Amino acid sequence: MLNIAKAFCLSCCFILCASASVMAETLPRIGIIGAGSMGGTLGRLWVKAGYPVFFSSRHPQELQPLIASLGPLAKAGTPQQAAEFGEVVVMAVPYGALPALGKNLAESLKDKVVLDVANPYPQRDGDVATQALQVGSGVYSARLFPQARVVRGFNSIAASSLASNAHRTGDALAVPLAGDDRKALDTVIQLTKAAGFAPVVVGDLSKATLFQPGSDLFLQTMTADELKQAISR
């Protein structure tokens, strides 16, 4: 009986591992550029949801403890490698770094979904942030990645709030999104749900001003209904 039970357990483990492997192959690969509090938090949530995630930073060797804790779906390397790996590439860096990344990674990001979670702060990021806030962060980010399909999202909620509210009991925490490309938005909507949140599309990239720094929705934690009501006022 013990041998039968052991064989059954091994068989179940094999089936579960195989299922997880098949699921990971069908889900879009995610490259994250910047593995700080925001990039690290989102990456962890997506790995737990079964997505293959490539974390990157200027010092990828420092990411090994994170990768070891997350298992085989997580990898680490350079920003260039993350951009090449991801079907969806997340920009989780200071906003002032985006112009250089837009130039250096242009070929690797061509036609890909770029999820921009960076926030422009003039005191930290200089003129590029000032221009982004004046033009609108969504529209300006799209100019920096002209061949990619840019979506703005997750930038209006602190990483600590995302970590503590993912998959919470009751109404999910809402995440406002803005984008011009419907298919890109659909992809990010699915990623938002997989991470444990309620996606709310507020409009095209010009509407990203509604939840950029200085707006009424910035750093607010709301349910989807509360967010929709706030937008409609």
UniProtKB/TrEMBL annotation:
Residues 1-24 form the signal peptide. Keywords: Oxidoreductase, Plasmid, Signal. The lineage of its organism: Bacteria, Pseudomonadati, Pseudomonadota, Gammaproteobacteria, Enterobacterales. It holds the Pfam family F420_oxidored. InterPro entries: NAD(P)-bd_dom_sf, P5C_Rdtase_cat_N, STEAP_metalloreductase. Residues 29-120 form the Pyrroline-5-carboxylate reductase catalytic N-terminal domain. The keyword Lipid biosynthesis does not apply. This is NADPH-dependent F420 reductase.
